[in-house]
Amino acid sequence: MTSDLQVGATSTSQSAVGGIDDAPANEPNRTSFLDRDHATPTRDRWRQRYRRNLIVTDLASLIWVVYGTQLAWFGMGNAAVAASHDSRITDLSYWLFSAILIVAWMWALSFIDSRSDRVMGTGSQEYIRIVDSSFRLFGTIAIIAFLTQIDVARGYLLISLPVGVLVLVFTRWLWRQWLIVQRSRGKYSASVLLVGSLPSVTQVAREFARNPNAGYRVVGACVPSGKVADTIPGTDIPVMGHVGDIARALQVTGADTVAVASADELPADKVKQISWSLEAGRQHLVLAPSIIDIAGPRLHTRPVAGLPLIHVETPRFSRGQVFLKRTVDLVASIVGVIVLSPLLAFLAMAVRLSSDGPVFFRQKRVGFRGREFTMIKFRSMVVNAEDLLEQLAKQERDAGNEVLFKMKNDPRVTPIGRIMRKFSLDELPQLFNVIGGSMSLVGPRPPLPSEVALYADHVHRRFLAKPGITGLWQVSGRSSLSWEESVRLDLSYVENWTLVGDFVILAKTARAALAPGETAA
Q1: 493 and 444 in contact (C-beta within 8 Å)?
Q2: Cα–Cα dist 404/84, whole Å
Q3: Which domains are present in the chain?
Q4: Which of 192, 140, 188 is nearest to 161 (CA)?
Q5: In this structure, are residues 350 and 416 in contact, taking their beta carbons and an 8 Å threshold?
Q6: How far apart are CA 145 and CA 101, in angstroms?
Q7: Beta-carbon neighbour count of residue 20 at 10 Å?
Q8: Angle 295-5-174 (CA atoms, 0-180°, nearest 5)?
Q9: Which residues partner with 376 through β-bridges?
């Protein structure tokens, strides 16, 4: 997990940067102080272009929503906002009021930095800022209308707010899909120069490579060894020199972001000196501590005596959070059973008629706080599947998977079972587990007792949450994931649970079920 610390400043003298650039004083490519402020490097223009695109689509969306709501509510007439008890305030046409509302809404989106490159393209912060700024704006309008006794049509406001938020979020989502495609091609990403010890640089490089959608493309690294001809192990990232060659490495690679993976190999003031050498507003400094899969509310930056301390809170699940999650699980699963009852009945008949054996498959799994429970699924395998398990599991262990049993083309699966598994239909009876309280809609994967017996101590943290019908493990690769990846995703979910995150996972699960890829098994 990275923590943005955008602390660029301008400086050019050798003494100011404290020896960061070890090149000779007559280096021909050195940029002067005035040149930096007036340079317009093309590498940073994508941020400006993308931000302008967001402004255009935000404005178009709000014009369509606000004036569309006005026409739907008042028609083509010249309705006016009236001041009920104050003759000093003249009536205001809704045509003008709508224009003011659009301008104020656009200002609120800008004021809260909803188009900042820190939130674009990944995570939920962009959407959260849209919702937050919109509700703050309409709350302010409501307060002003109440204090000044201005009579604004409630229906007009109550329709504009939710529709406007939905349209804004949808257009931003469309732009994000476009941005993801561009980043998969190596475009519209920050060019990163990694700095630190070789192990820490390697770890951060792997995390960036694992999630290219985040928009960080590593173009080089500076490590203590400084062997220019080397590459970072397991990657094709070139070593650009030692930690004192950062300025020259930035010029050669064209990087616009310096990511300090560890400061162990750096002098005490080196990070501050690096920030001084960067171009203000065009080059960025990122501190990437060796803490992965911890995000959101658990991270807090607190400046103390000039030190930007990152506080990492321990996972806490309040009674309110537990109650809220259980309420959502219960209501959603009951509604799901009612709505899906025709499909459940059809699948039960298909299983019963297509092969010998019971309709449901029951199996002991380990759940919340390590307690065992019986998980139910539609039977998708032959009746003697358990008898064949040991032989197949041995094949998996020989292939290097010591804990998590999985096989892409499992011979025990029936034809109807293969179809159900592809679209995750065999999991639907687990809705009854959710109603009974042994499972949740979203959570870690429910493991077998035999798997738990092989767990390392830290893996038991996954039992801090109820197991889920779906989870990060299912929407991030399913059968293609290694054991280490499955554990990492489960622990990440437990460590960083939010209700919004659950809704995002459910939406991704629905999309994966309707359009399963090669990872479905």
Answers
A1: yes
A2: 69
A3: 3-35+189-312 (3.40.50), 46-184 (no CATH), 319-514 (no CATH)
A4: 140
A5: yes
A6: 13
A7: 21
A8: 60
A9: 362
Residue 278's identity, in one-letter code, is L
**Separation between Cα atoms, residue 345 and residue 241, nearest integer Å:** 66
pLDDT averaged per 10 residues, the chain (length 521) = 37 34 38 37 71 94 93 75 52 81 94 84 84 93 84 86 94 92 85 86 84 84 78 83 82 85 70 74 75 60 63 67 91 95 94 88 92 93 70 57 56 84 90 95 91 85 89 75 79 82 88 67 53
Q: Closest Cα to residue 468, out of 500, 445, 447?
A: 445
Question: Beta-carbon neighbour count of residue 62 at 10 Å?
Answer: 23
Buried b (16+ CB within 10 A) or exposed e, 125-160: bbbebbbebbeebbeebeeebeeeebebbeebbebb
DSSP state of 30: P
In a 3-state reduction of DSSP, which class is residue 236?
Answer: coil
pTM (2 d.p.): 0.61
Nearest residue to 269 (alpha-carbon basis) of 22, 17, 519: 17
